[in-house]
Write a structure and sequence with these properties.
The complex is a heterodimer of chains A (644) and B (226). Chain A is of the alpha+beta class and 644 residues long. Chain A is built from 22 helices and 24 strands. Classes of the chains: A alpha+beta (644), B alpha+beta (226).
Chain lengths: 644, 226
């Protein structure tokens, strides 16, 4: 909880400064702080501020609701009023970086900020605890003493240090710092001593030697009842916890302070620019780049208990094997913005083992016949995916074995392997893959109208009520779900069974589910190796008769068939449909905001490209409607809409 | 789980937006000259049956557990068992149409005052806080039937505590009250009431929101022909 709080508070500080960085007119000089990042940093984020400034001016950005809100919050907390990003003193001709570096005992989350006007910057970041100045370097702490801010004339750094649980739960380390030691092997607490913590010093960690508790003589008034003992135990545990917290907090802020001083004073002897894994991922065209080395390790390392012992919940869930061989080598997300599109491209580099599994599973192409049943003019959205069911089922037991094999300790690894083999033995992968080949597409294809009966009443001359059946029309979105299947024998038996049990009704060449409770009619049929499920009877009739007229351009077809997973959403058309079908929720403010927001949005495309060089690439594209000028203005317009 | 159910559940978030959710509550009271009579209470959700059907496929909506058909039938049977216990009440019956989502409870009473007893007991049993209360009286001598209704601002306060989606349910709901008598009605105090062509029945049809906001008073003094 302590570490989470610290991180949360740091994120809050970071978010304000990031936003402030997005704009200023002061293109005085350019500096690059990248050489201050150590070579072994496990995560680096780059905000290419000058690139952003080309898309939106400081004045325009300061006028957006999102930035105004940030300024308001800042004023509320610090009492300093900011009206324009230009007043922050930040140098936006240079990049800003955030990174994570670690050693065996502590992880540092750092934000490196270039400064253009030191006076302005100092005036807005000064806290109640004041600023300590020494040799041209200023130091300030957040009011909760969890993060330290250090700056000189050209740049600033914010550091939050989070201590590693595992390190401090070693007996010798706990004793060294006067912390309680919890022996998880026996579930007992061996309190090393009660310690006292002195006030935070920015350079030295000082923990007063723990006084040894004296043995007490028997007290005649001592209450030895179980209840009293329990109470004493609770008080003791709370105070021990408080004491440990205070010690760790002091260590964290002191180590963070030392690290920040070092960052400010000099560049790294071995900086991140010497790390080829990082440098090959840099991209000058992106407005932001986020790089994580060995993301599984970072994730597991962020869980306090991971790897501690066999009682660890996270170890049991994730398994030690996953972090080492069965996961990802690196993750890089790049955000690009231009006049037409906001685009995020994420490369996930897998370990050879994971890549081999993924490569085998994602070999099947999407059935191109699906595309004959899409009509662009009425399309609200779709989602298509393709994998090889047979390969998936064959590889899955191995995947489970590798992932969870180590979860219960080595003694159960053999049992896990046997379980995986047994699963494989039970399943006829070939037969299952004939029923569901692995490629499917879900299409929201416009709207249709459904007639629904309901009961109303007529009244006679004495107001005696007589129920009468009336009809009304409901407009609903049409869906069509398709998947490839070559199985005939089993499905025809299943259909016969369904008809016999009154669960299905045959309507010519297709079938209807007869569940009276269903709010929509659902029809299905199998044709040309495809199973069709839809709520639009007319469309299915046309598909059955072979006279459905689809409309889907070559470019759209190429987009869908070139990916393992594709997604498309037309927000403007969807907003129109929602408005046409739903009068009832128009009064709900949140709903209106949602509709008004999507009305302004451009089309959204998501695609997962086939694997190349052990790397999976995901792309999210949001088209910027013309009136916004460029994608950054468009994104802020959407945020403004949601905030109103 | 059938595939149809799977698809329905996948699409419920989209589909349930598209359905309206209005319902009718109808209270019918027949009063005979000697003060005895019959009551029929109806909740008609058939206009929202697509929405109800889609919601019944969910486990919970807006944080409320969605009852199963079994739960609803159990509740109805319990209501009948309870009402049967009250003095002066007989012929208690219930019906539940799960195709059109219409539920009714009907019973006979020997005296109009029995209705007040039921209201009080049900209010206590269901731990309903003091809110809008209606009480009924009938004077056989003067031939005056009265419904006294008192609006409590707590009703609106309770309504305001609901989530926006829950509030919506009431926005298109209606409350209909019908009183039928053996004698001709010579006068009634509620101007919103509509007289039947026979002159022996009165109908009051108001939006539920008007009752919640206290905009409409459904009290009535009905003078029957002597």
């Amino acid at each position: 909880m302590n570490l989470n709080n610290q991180f949360y508070k740091m994120k809050k500080t970071v978010s304000l400064l990031f936003t402030a960085l997005f704009a200023t007119a002061s293109f005085i000089h350019a500096q690059d702080l990248i050489k201050k990042i150590p070579v072994n940093a496990t995560m680096v984020g780059t905000i290419q501020t000058p690139k952003m400034m080309q898309l939106m001016s400081a004045d325009d950005l300061s006028g957006t609701s999102a930035v105004k809100k940030l300024f308001e919050n800042f004023t509320k907390e610090n009492g300093k009023e900011i009206k324009n990003i230009k007043e922050t003193g930040l140098d936006l001709a240079s990049n800003t970086y955030f990174f994570r570096a670690e050693n065996d005992s502590v992880a540092y989350y750092c934000l490196l900020i270039p400064i253009a006007n030191t006076q302005q910057f100092a005036s807005i970041v000064a806290t109640k605890s004041g600023i300590v100045q020494k040799n041209g370097i200023s130091t300030s702490y957040t009011s909760d003493s969890t993060s330290v801010l250090v700056w000189d004339a050209k740049h600033a750094v914010i550091v939050t240090a989070t201590l590693k649980y595992n390190y401090f739960n070693k007996k010798d380390i706990a004793e060294r710092y006067g912390l309680s030691y919890y022996d998880y092997g026996t579930y007992s607490t061996t309190d090393s001593a009660v310690s006292e913590v002195i006030a935070v010093d920015t350079t030295i960690v000082e923990v007063v030697e723990a006084p040894v508790a004296e043995e007490k003589e028997e007290d005649p008034y001592f209450d030895s009842s179980e209840e009293a003992e329990q109470k004493v135990k609770q008080i003791f545990e709370v105070s021990t916890w408080d004491n440990d917290y205070a010690i760790k907090k002091t260590l964290g802020i002191n180590w963070g302070g030392l690290f920040a001083q070092t960052l400010i004073q000099k560049e790294q002897d071995s900086s991140i620019v010497l790390n080829s894994n990082f440098t090959r991922m840099r991209d000058d065209n992106a407005v932001a780049v986020f790089w994580v080395d060995n993301p599984m390790s970072l994730y597991l390392g962020s869980i306090p208990f991971y790897g501690l012992d066999r009682y660890s919940a996270s170890t049991m869930l994730l398994g030690a094997n996953m972090a080492s061989t069965y996961g990802y080598k690196s993750l890089v997300s790049k955000i690009f913005m231009d006049n037409e599109t906001a685009r995020m491209v994420t490369d996930l580099e897998m370990t050879p083992e994971s890549a081999a599994f993924t490569q085998k599973v994602y070999t099947r192409p999407l059935n191109k016949q699906f595309l004959n049943y899409i009509h662009t003019d009425s399309l609200l959205g779709y989602m298509a995916w393709s994998l090889d069911t047979k390969a998936y089922l064959q590889e899955m037991p191995r995947f489970l074995e590798r992932t969870y094999g180590g979860l219960a300790g080595e003694s159960y690894a053999d049992e896990m392997m046997l379980g995986a083999e047994f699963f494989s033995l039970l399943l006829d992968e070939e037969a299952v893959s004939q029923l569901y080949k692995g490629d499917a597409m879900l299409v929201l294809n416009g709207v249709y109208q459904q007639k629904v009966t309901y009961t109303d009443y007529t009244y006679d001359e004495n107001f005696k009520a007589t129920p009468v059946e009336k009809t009304k029309t409901e407009t609903l979105p049409k869906f069509l779900f398709m998947f490839s299947s070559e199985e005939q024998s089993f499905t025809s038996k299943l259909i016969k069974y369904g008809i016999k049990k009154n669960m299905l009704k045959q309507q010519g060449v297709f079938y209807e589910f007869t569940d009276k409770r269903s709010p929509v009619h659902i029809y299905f049929m199998q044709k040309d190796g495809i199973f069709f499920f839809t709520n639009a009877e007319d469309d299915l009739q046309k598909i059955a008769a072979g006279n459905y007229t689809g409309k889907f351009s070559k470019a759209e077809k190429k987009f869908v068939t070139n990916g393992n997973f594709t997604f498309f959403f037309n927000p403007q058309r969807t907003a129109k449909v929602i408005n046409s079908v739903n009068a009832e929720v128009k009064d709900v403010k949140e709903f209106n905001t949602f509709v008004q927001t999507i009305e302004k949005m451009g089309n959204v495309y998501i695609k997962a490209l086939p694997m190349q060089n052990n790397t999976f690439t995901y792309e999210i594209n949001m088209k910027s409607p013309q009136q916004h000028g460029n994608a950054m203005r468009y994104m802020f317009n959407i945020i403004d809409g949601l905030m109103q | 789980m059938t595939f149809a159910r799977f698809v329905q559940i996948c699409f419920l978030p989209v589909i349930s937006f598209c359905f309206s959710s209005c319902f009718q509550f109808i209270e019918e009271v027949n009063v005979r000259s000697n003060g005895s009579g019959d009551v029929k209470l109806t909740i008609n959700l058939s206009q929202s049956k697509s929405k109800v059907a889609s919601l019944l496929l969910l486990d919970s909506v807006n944080g409320h557990k969605v009852p199963t058909e079994k739960d609803i039938r159990k509740y109805m049977n319990e209501a009948v068992t309870d009402i049967k216990k009250y003095q002066g009440i007989s012929n208690v019956a219930q019906s539940l149409d799960m195709k059109n989502y219409i539920a009714t409870i009907s019973f006979s009473f020997t005296d109009v005052s029995n209705l007040n007893n039921i209201i009080r007991k049900l209010t206590e049993k269901n731990k309903i806080k003091s809110s809008n209360f209606a009480s009924y009286s009938y004077d056989k001598q003067t031939k005056v039937f009265k419904r006294d209704y008192q609006y409590s601002s707590e009703t609106k306060a309770e309504y305001n505590k609901l989530k926006a989606d829950d509030k919506n349910v009431f926005k298109t709901a209606t409350y209909t009250s019908i009183f039928r008598f053996e004698e001709t009605i010579t006068a009634n105090s509620n101007k919103l009431s509509k007289m039947s062509p026979s002159g022996k029945a009165l109908m009051l049809n108001v939006p539920a929101m008007d009752l919640i906001n206290g905009k409409t008073n459904i009290s009535n003094n009905i003078q029957l022909a002597k």
